[in-house]
Amino acid sequence: MVKNHGLAGIVVDETKISSTKNAHLIYVGYPIEEIAQASFEEVVFLLWYKHLPKQTELVAFRQDLVNKMVLPAETIRLLLYIAKEPQHPMSILRTTTSLLGTTNDVEHDEPPKILAKMLTAIAAIIRIRDNEPLMEIDPDLGVVENFLLMMTGKKPSKRLAKMFSTVMILHADHEFNASTFTARVAASTLTDYYSCLTAAVCALKGPLHGGANERVFEMLETIQQQQIDPLKYLQDQLKAKRKIMGFGHRIYKDGDPRARILKQIAAELAQTTDNQVYYQLQIKIADYMFARFNLHPNVDYYTALIYHCIGLEKETFTMIFAACRTVGWLAHIMEQRQEGSLIRPSSVYIGPTERHYLRKVGDHNE
Questions:
Q1: What is the DSSP string of 282-349?
Q2: Considering the chain, what percentage of its residues have pLDDT values greater than 70?
Q3: Helix or strand or coil: residue 112?
Q4: SS3 letters for 155-185?
Q5: Catalytic residue chosen out of the listed positions 171, 173, 174, 249
Q6: Alpha carbon of 15 to those of 20, 115, 318, 331: distances in Å?
């Protein structure tokens, strides 16, 4: 039997949610380049219900999500303690996601309420860690605007909200990635939504998955703050056999379509927030990596700068990824639950055989 690392190329199930076939990303049949122009709420509706909403449905769906962006008082009370612990924010989110499944009438929580609570919880963690007061929702704003408001404490401009909506859409789903597959495995046991999401958060926490965006900005900060020549930095890292985060993709050999869109957003935000030095640094690094290794930036590369430009600390970047990907996680959890089959793959045993345990009467360990 041929050994297959990481299930690469193995088809484990069918899905109607998203596809990366032939290196083209689609959401329920819509090319990502087109659907990224929609509103965040439209894409959430599309991924969950497999069709775009009518205008009346969209208005009602948006208002329902916004109205649910409120946490139980008990959750807030506990978050005020948990979020201040000296742990990585993703560890805080892991515990918080589980906590959300223990407060209020969670047996009747459905995806709209769960998504709304996750967004609010992530924003609350950021505010608490920054020693800032929690923000209340503005019922006149949409989901993205309220998410930005609750994170930053400022009502976003329409342009910023539109750009960040695109960022959230681009991160909403990506076929059977590691965290999504983890959520589906949990869902196949018919466990509750929050247990599935907690498992997904645990998978996303790893630096080879969601944690890459944080590592990208660490690289940019190191080069800029220490005034290192970027090409020398890259050469030294490569000589030491260290991975340059934010480049290459198992599927997109000719470039991640999401990165091309994010690059434009990063350029605009860098200009308006006086972060051009980081953007120019990214361009130099990207040019070098393409010229030497034919590697393109992936979704994490420009996202790191975008999150920095809106005022977020690098340690929280993966939490924002989780906020966006919760949309897709919930879509896949729903699909897997409807399928009703337990995910239980086989393995090939390669350990020792023909061992026997024999113990004589009176034997004992010294």
A1: HHHHHHHHHHHH-PPB-HHHHHHHHHHHTT--GGGHHHHHHHHHHHHHHHHHHHHHHHT---------
A2: 94
A3: helix
A4: CCCHHHHHHHHHHHHHCCCCCCCHHHHHHHH
A5: 249
A6: 12, 21, 25, 10
Give tens-digit pLDDT for 117-162.
Answer: 999 999 999 999 999 999 999 999 999 999 999 999 999 999 999 9
User: Can you give the pTM of this predicted structure?
Assistant: 0.92
Is 46's pLDDT higher than 60? yes
Is 108 catalytic? The answer is no
116 within 8 A of 75, measured Cβ to Cβ: no
Asked if residue 314 lies in contact with residue 217, where contact means CB atoms within 8 angstroms, the answer is yes
Contact indicator for 211, 319 with CB cutoff of 8 Å? no
User: CB–CB of 58/39 below 8 Å?
Assistant: yes
Does 88 qualify as catalytic in the annotation? no
What are the residue ranges of helices labelled H in 177-275?
Answer: 178-187, 193-204, 212-225, 230-239, 257-272
What is the per-residue pLDDT across 172-199, written as a single tens digit (0 to 9) for each? 999 999 999 999 999 999 999 999 999 9
Catalytic residue among 109, 173, 256, 300: 300
CA distance 165 to 324: 10
173, 28 Cβ separation under 8 angstroms: no
Reading the block at residue 179, the tokens are 């965290």
User: Do residues 268 and 308 lie in contact, with contact meaning Cβ atoms separated by under 8 Å?
Assistant: no
Give kind and range of the element (H or E) at residue 105: none
Q: CB neighbours of 237 closer than 8 A, spacing ≥ 6?
A: 244
Task: Identify the H or E element spanning 247.
Answer: none
The pair of structure tokens assigned to 126 is: 């950021």
pLDDT score of 242 more than 60: yes
Are the C-beta atoms of 327 and 43 separated by less than 8 Å? Answer: yes
Q: Quote the CA–CA distance of 336 and 159 in Å, as a whole number.
A: 37
